[in-house]
From TrEMBL:
It is found in: Membrane. It is a multi-pass membrane protein. It comes from Ophiostoma piceae (strain UAMH 11346). InterPro entries: Marvel (IPR008253). The keyword Membrane applies. GO terms for cellular component: membrane. Residues 6-132 form the MARVEL domain. PANTHER family: MARVEL DOMAIN, MARVEL DOMAIN-CONTAINING PROTEIN. This is MARVEL domain-containing protein. Signal peptide: none annotated. Coiled coil: none annotated. Keywords: Membrane, Transmembrane, Transmembrane helix.
Amino acid sequence: MAFNWILILRAQQFIYAFIVLGLSAYVVNWYTMDTRSASPSQVNFLVAVPVMSLFSLGYTEGVSRFAPRFYKPVIAIGVDAFNAILYFGGFIALAVFLNGLLFCRGNVCGSARAATAFSAMSFGAWAASAALLSLTVFKGGLRKTSPRTQAMYAAEMKDAAQRA
């Protein structure tokens, strides 16, 4: 039995999403409560991206396990790639924003830097899962079905033959 790297990456993505969400929400809360200006859009973006990735994890893992007929691997690859792009844009934008600040001290600055670092790690996890899933899906071409699908169709054909 092959080692399931995708499941480990999904667990990392889940953990990183909560970490980035918590750190970014802390920065947004600090701007809302302690300053007179609105929180930067870069930080707001990094609040929205983990929420989106949690919904994506719900699709990729939930549907593949509990409703496999509705699971399409090509859509899962697109979802993974889309999340990788979102995290890439988010951590680059926040890093550029933090670099442009005149001073950056205290807990809020450390939280923003940590959110940037964990967003970069999330980007790596989503990109790796998209690559691994692509290798798995496209290994035999687009028309080749997986062994699980072949077994399912064989069982259906056997049942249909017995009924006839």
